[in-house]
Amino acid sequence: MAVVCRNLRAFAQKTSSLRCTPNFLRLYSQSKPAPPKLVTVDVDKAGVATVTLDRPPVNSLNTGLLEELGVAIKDLEANKTRGIILTSSSNSVFSAGLDILEMYEPKKQNLSLFWTTLQNTWLSLYRTSIPTVAAINGHAPAGGCLLALSCEYRVMVGPKFTIGLNETQLGIVAPQWFMICMKDAVGRRQAEMALTAGKMFSTQEALNIGLIDKMVSNKEEAIAEAQKFIAQFAKIPPLARRMTKESIRQEGIKYMEENAIDDLKAFMDLVVQPNIQKGLGMYLEAMKKSK
Ligand SMILES: CCCCCC/C=C\CC(=O)SCCNC(=O)CCNC(=O)[C@H](O)C(C)(C)COP(=O)(O)OP(=O)(O)OC[C@H]1O[C@@H](n2cnc3c(N)ncnc32)[C@H](O)[C@@H]1OP(=O)(O)O
Q1: Ligand 1 centre and the CA of 57: distance in Å?
Q2: Residue 215 gets which letter from DSSP?
Q3: Chief localization class (predicted)?
Q4: pTM here?
């Protein structure tokens, strides 16, 4: 701000009629174009919202996107939306998971904000009383898989995309609440096998173990299936539905409510370990080289 003010003052002196006053600064900031939205929301006539992740090229989850997603869920709750369909603007990636750049050589304050935003947005999605469906129209590794797992129903475009919690392959450990989500979907045995191997599943394999509920051949079909899933709740009393969802998801909800601070500390301690930093750096390099 000091630099902006100094530059503006110089500019004002040159033009003589302008001064670096609060009004001038307000006008200056108003004239800056708004940053592009990273999440768009479109509510149809039936009151069902399509929430689209829109951070090219791969919807990696940075603080900004997570924050916008959290706000979108809260707004939709306030507006009594009938359903949420979570999808992506990309033709090949649902979400590439957490933005590795948020974790690589981070500033402590940014890292803390990043993880807290992830925790809060995850909890909002996981526990919302609104019926939720992931229309997975592309690859969904790690944090991308987590978002899908947090929804009540998963429809995935196949057969060529992959989904899974691949953290061990990166030399990192998925937090407990990621594991709870995987167990919720596929059961403890399959979750243990998937997580220890860091397995990325083909769409068909994911269908076979219950990691996804339906395989379709394009995004339009995925959205139509998601709408069908949500429509069934028109006949179910909302309070009974809400209490049942809250109750069946109690383990994950309680875990986060009781452990958010410890979870943040564990993450902060782990990320800055030199071997983790080295691994993340090498992973980023490898992604560049594989092009
Ligand atoms: C340290 C403690 C950790 C605690 C627990 C953490 C829990 C969860 C961890 C995560 O979610 S880590 C992220 C894991 N994600 C992945 O392993 C996926 C990596 N990406 C891919 O496999 C591929 O990008 C893709 C999703 C299959 C898409 O492939 P495509 O060929 O379409 O695109 P690319 O050319 O590979 O990528 C384009 C561009 O995006 C960059 N990028 C990709 N993924 C990420 C990411 N997760 N974070 C940051 N940046 C990413 C990639 O480097 C390319 O960049 P440029 O070269 O264009 O600059």
Answers
A1: 10
A2: E
A3: mitochondrion
A4: 0.91
ipTM score here?
Answer: 0.98
Catalytic positions are 98, 143, 166-167
61 within a domain of the structure (yes/no):
yes
User: What CATH number does residue 149 fall under?
Assistant: 3.90.226.10
Residue nearest (by alpha carbon) to ligand 1 atom 42 = 58
215 lines ligand 1 (CB under 6 A): no
Integer Cα distance of 279 and 290 in angstroms = 16
Domain holding 119, by residue range, is 39-290
- Assess whether the C-beta atom of 118 lies below 6 angstroms from ligand 1: no
Domain count within the chain: 1
Amino acid identity at 254? K
Angle at which helices 238-248 and 250-271 cross, to 10° = 50
pLDDT digits (tens, 9 = 90+) for 44-62: 999 999 999 999 999 999 9
Ligand 1 pocket member 205 (CB < 6 A): no
